[in-house]
């Protein structure tokens, strides 16, 4: 009789370890992208990441369940949502990272779970008082960051914040559509084909701009690490965590990714952000944690396997 309990405990421990690895990969990916921009243009970085991650994910999806037999409408919907969550999001996000400290980029990206809630209201989803309080707290911190852009010599610029907020909004919209589509066609097939199809327009645009010569091999290794780590390994570990631990318990861990981005940007990129930025970041992340803390929710998502962060 004790064997099943022991097995369940081991599975939960492994799932939790995978979730922790995931948030480290996502937080570190922001810093890695900032470093890669010193050696490669955004087109080269994204083209490499998309091609590698798409190939691996589609291979895994087809091996797992065969080639999808979706209707034309479903294919077009998956491709359209993938365009928003990949080509649009990555273009906006890398531009924002180039114009902002990596730590700030990670914090603003941490607004995604918060933005999902008010955007969900437009689709008829209810929000609890606790979630509303978390949203209000996070937006207070964001307003503080925006006000800091008006100070002379501030490391945070209004233009950079604009690009990052646009990226976070695009990802939040992708997340809302992702919930329904993942339940309809399956989490892995959705992420695999939405990434692959959604990145095709970007790959066509980026192809003439890819830097094939004069780039250090270590930079291409970083692109591979970003594509495989943040978009493949992290996704699979996150999906497993949501399956074993539950979406609510898993999603709150996502709040740690911006914290890791802040710490690594200070340690590895030697970014020195003023205390006011750290304080604003603390308010934003506190609000995000409050809004996503496990508990009774007014409208649980349809599918928890890819809640809030399927790929980055």
UniProtKB/TrEMBL annotation:
<feature type="transmembrane region" description="Helical">
    <location>
        <begin position="251"/>
        <end position="269"/>
    </location>
</feature>
<dbReference type="InterPro" id="IPR050638">
    <property type="entry name" value="AA-Vitamin_Transporters"/>
</dbReference>
<dbReference type="InterPro" id="IPR037185">
    <property type="entry name" value="EmrE-like"/>
</dbReference>
<dbReference type="Pfam" id="PF00892">
    <property type="entry name" value="EamA"/>
</dbReference>
<feature type="transmembrane region" description="Helical">
    <location>
        <begin position="275"/>
        <end position="293"/>
    </location>
</feature>
<feature type="transmembrane region" description="Helical">
    <location>
        <begin position="218"/>
        <end position="239"/>
    </location>
</feature>
<keyword id="KW-0472">Membrane</keyword>
<feature type="domain" description="EamA">
    <location>
        <begin position="16"/>
        <end position="146"/>
    </location>
</feature>
<feature type="domain" description="EamA">
    <location>
        <begin position="160"/>
        <end position="292"/>
    </location>
</feature>
<feature type="transmembrane region" description="Helical">
    <location>
        <begin position="45"/>
        <end position="62"/>
    </location>
</feature>
<feature type="transmembrane region" description="Helical">
    <location>
        <begin position="74"/>
        <end position="97"/>
    </location>
</feature>
<feature type="transmembrane region" description="Helical">
    <location>
        <begin position="131"/>
        <end position="148"/>
    </location>
</feature>
<feature type="transmembrane region" description="Helical">
    <location>
        <begin position="154"/>
        <end position="174"/>
    </location>
</feature>
<comment type="similarity">
    <text>Belongs to the EamA transporter family.</text>
</comment>
<keyword id="KW-1133">Transmembrane helix</keyword>
<feature type="transmembrane region" description="Helical">
    <location>
        <begin position="12"/>
        <end position="33"/>
    </location>
</feature>
<feature type="transmembrane region" description="Helical">
    <location>
        <begin position="186"/>
        <end position="206"/>
    </location>
</feature>
<dbReference type="InterPro" id="IPR000620">
    <property type="entry name" value="EamA_dom"/>
</dbReference>
<keyword id="KW-0812">Transmembrane</keyword>
<feature type="transmembrane region" description="Helical">
    <location>
        <begin position="103"/>
        <end position="124"/>
    </location>
</feature>
<protein>
    <submittedName>
        <fullName>DMT family transporter</fullName>
    </submittedName>
</protein>
């Amino acid at each position: 009789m004790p064997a099943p309990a022991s097995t369940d405990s081991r599975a939960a421990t492994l799932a939790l370890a995978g979730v922790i690895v995931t948030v480290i990969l996502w937080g570190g990916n922001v810093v890695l992208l900032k470093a890669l921009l010193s050696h490669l243009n955004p087109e080269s970085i994204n083209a490499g990441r998309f091609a590698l991650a798409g190939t691996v994910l589609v291979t895994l999806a087809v091996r797992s369940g065969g080639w999808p037999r979706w209707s034309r409408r479903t294919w077009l919907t998956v491709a359209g949502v993938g365009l928003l969550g990949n080509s649009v999001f990555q273009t906006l996000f890398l531009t924002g990272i180039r114009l902002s400290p990596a730590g700030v980029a990670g914090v603003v990206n941490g607004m995604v779970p918060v933005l999902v809630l008010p955007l969900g209201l437009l689709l008829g989803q209810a929000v609890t008082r606790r979630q509303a309080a978390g949203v209000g707290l996070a937006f207070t911190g964001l307003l503080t960051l925006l006000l800091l852009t008006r100070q002379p010599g501030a490391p945070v610029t209004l233009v950079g914040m604009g690009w990052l907020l646009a990226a976070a909004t695009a990802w939040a919209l992708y997340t809302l559509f992702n919930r329904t589509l993942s339940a309809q066609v399956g989490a892995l097939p959705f992420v695999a084909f939405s990434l692959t199809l959604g990145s095709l327009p970007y790959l066509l645009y980026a192809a003439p701009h890819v830097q094939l010569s004069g780039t250090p091999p270590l930079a291409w290794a970083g692109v591979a690490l970003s594509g495989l780590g943040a978009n493949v390994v992290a996704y699979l570990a996150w999906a497993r965590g949501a399956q074993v631990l539950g979406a609510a318990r898993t999603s709150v861990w996502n709040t740690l990714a911006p914290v890791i981005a802040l710490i690594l940007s200070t340690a590895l990129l030697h970014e020195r952000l003023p205390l006011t930025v750290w304080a604003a970041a603390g308010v934003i992340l506190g609000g995000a944690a409050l809004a996503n803390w496990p508990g009774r929710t007014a409208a649980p998502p349809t599918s928890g396997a890819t809640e809030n962060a399927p790929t980055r």
